[in-house]
Give the backbone structure.
Amino acid sequence: MHEIFLDELKKLNTQFMEMGVQVNELIDKGTRSFVDHNKKMAQEMIEQDKIVAKEAITIEKKALDLMALQQPVATDFRVVISILKATTDLERIGENANSIAVETVRVKGNPRIPDVEEIISRMTHQVRTMLIKVLTAYVQDDEKTAREMLDGHADVHYDYRKARKMIIDGVKKDPNVAVASASYFVIIRLLERISDHIVNLASWVIYKSSGDLFELINSEKETSSEKEIKEEVPKKSKKTKKK
Amino acid sequence: MTNIMEAQNVKLSYGKFEALHGISLNFPEKQLTALIGPSGCGKSTFLRCLNRMNDDIDNINITGKILLEGKDIYRAKLDLVALRKKVGMVFQQPTPFPFPVYDNVAYGLRVAGVKDKQLIDQRVEESLKQAAIWDETKDNLQRNAQEFSGGQQQRICIARALAVRPEVVLLDEPTSALDPISSAEIEETLMGLKKKYTFIMVTHNLQQASRVSDQVAFLMDGELIESGPTEQMFLAPKKEITSNYLNGRFG
Ligand SMILES: Nc1ncnc2c1ncn2[C@@H]1O[C@H](COP(=O)(O)OP(=O)(O)O)[C@@H](O)[C@H]1O
Ligand SMILES: [Mg+2]
C-alpha cells in the first residue's frame, strides 16, 4: 500500500522538477527575446507557457488524488501539500515570464536604453540562479538553504530600484525612449514578482521538512498605488512565521 | 491547563513479561487524549492501569505512579469503589447489563449507595441526554438494554459511565464494533461532552483520533514513542516512526 504512495510521490517530484526546468527556461527566453528584440522567440514561448500550465494541472490533479485516496498525514501530508502549493508559485513564475515576452512584441522598433537592458539581463540571471537553488533545495530537502533564501532576494530588489532610477533619468535625457521605458517598468516589476514567488517556494521547502508555515508574499494582489509607495522605500523582508 | 491525571514511569509485567516499560504521560483536564499504536503495544493494559482494572490479574506487577488530582491511585488504603466512580470505563463491545435501560444507567448510583429515587430519576435522564440517547430511550426506559442496536447500546454504556458524574472516562476502542454511522454518533457525543469530562480513549481509527482528540499519545512495544497536541502529531510529529505509523506503515 505504501509502496504505491512512495511511487506516486516520486513521479510527482519528477514532474515538479521538469516543470521547474521549463519555467526557468521561460524566464530566460522571456528576457532574452526582449533584449534581443526576438519576436519569434517571444511567440514560441507563449506556446511553451501553455505546456507549463498543462503540467501544473497534471501535478495538481495527481496531488489531489493522492490526498483523497491515500489520505496522507504528518510528513506525507506535508510533502503532498507543499508540492501542491509550490506548483502554484511555479506556475505564476511562468506567467510572469510570459508577460515579459509580451512586452517584446509591444516595444519592437522603438528606441531603447542599453544600460537598463543590461540591468534587466542581470536581474534575470539572479532570479534564474535563485530558482535553480530553490528547486535543488526542494529535491534535496535542504531546509537550511531554503531558510537562507527567505531574505535572499535583496539583490533583485536593489537592482530593481537602480533600474527604476535609470529609466526615469533615461526618459528625461531622451523622450524618445518613452515607449520602451514603459515596458522596462513592467519587466523589472515582473522580475521582482518572480523573485517573490521564488521566496514562496523556499517557504514550501521549509514547510515540507519542518511544518513551519510562513506568510507568503502576494505581490500580484497589490494595487498600483500601494506599489508606488512600496517602491520608494527599500523593501524589507516580509517573512513572518505564522502560528 | 491542569492535568487531572499523571502517569509517571509506569511499568507493568504480566508474570515475567514486561508489557509497559515505563510510561509517563499527563492527561489535561477536560480534554480528550487518544492512545494509538499497533495491536499488542499495551494500550489497553495502560488504560486499565488508570482505574486499577488490572489489579485482579494473577502475577501482575505494577510500578511507578499514577496520580489522580495529585494523589497516587496505587496508594495503600485507596477506596476502589470511590476511584472507579471518579474514573469510569467504557469498553469495546457494548456491555449493557441484561436488564432495563433505566436500571443500567442507575446501576452505578445504586452501587454507590444512592437511594433517593428522585435524584436517580434525574441523573438517569440527564445522563441519557448527555450520551445523546435520550430521544431513543425515553419511551422505553423499561426495555431490556440489550435489545437496542449496537450503537445505541454503546451510548447507553456511556450514559451508565456518566451517571456517577466521573472526573475521567476511559474508553477502550468504543466504536470498533460499530458501523460507521453509529461510530460517527458516538464521536459526536464525545465531542459534545468534552467540555464536561476528561476522556482517555484507545482507538485504532486514526481518523477518529484526529477528529475528536486534543492530545495523542503513540505507543509501541510498551513504550510511549511520542505524545503531543493532535494537530502537531498529525501535521508535524517529531519522530519519523510516528509519521510512518500514522500513514499506515509499521516499523
Ligand atoms: N492478562 C494478560 N496476561 C498476559 N499477557 C497479557 C494480558 N493482557 C495483555 N497481555 C499482553 O500484553 C501486551 C499488551 O496487550 P494489550 O494491552 O491488550 O495491547 P493493545 O491494547 O495495545 O492491543 C500484549 O503482548 C498482550 O499479549
Ligand atoms: Mg486493546
Q: What stands out?
A: The longest helix of chain A spans residues 2-35.
